[in-house]
Amino acid sequence: xxxxxxxxxxxxxxxxxxxxxxxxxxxxxxxxxxxxxxxxxxxxxxxxxxxxxxxxxxxxxxxxxxxxxxxxxxxxxxxxxxxxxxxxxxxxxxxxxxxxxxxxxxxxxxxxxxxxxxxxxxxxxxxxxxxxxxxxxxxxxxxxxxxxxxxxxxxxxxxxxxxxxxxxxxxxxxx
Length: 175
What we know:
Elements: H1 7-24, E1 41-45, E2 48-52, H2 59-65, E3 66-67, E4 70-71, E5 79-83, E6 89-93, E7 103-108, E8 114-119, E9 122-123, E10 126-127, H3 131-146, H4 149-159, H5 166-173
Antiparallel strand pairs: 1-2, 3-10, 4-9, 5-6, 7-8
Helix pairs in contact: 1-3
């Protein structure tokens, strides 16, 4: 039977994972005066590790996991300031033929057939950066690679698995 890792070991791994996640996280989002990764907290209990992200820094979870493309229907009827490449601000209104979700014809072929369209006011989505997941995996691997025989034996004894065959327990512990 596999025994869960004791609390003191999982606390060490979770603390290391937070340090790694803070290092890997994007450094600025252009809006907040504080870096969201500074507020990551380690979460650990017997057999579990994790990283807690406070709700006010939920954007860090969106960066980590990514999100699917979506049409911004909430912009319907609103005026949106858009800065162009020269720095000038232009105002666009999202209604009528430019309403969110409407198709705009981009190009036609020589016969006049539509060859390309674009959905108006569609956010393209974003692939996840996976800095939290990667930090958790790396912290666990670092512990696995750095744990010496004495530390592993002490952990086995503290989990109550010492009564089982030592070889069987060590074989079951392998990742």
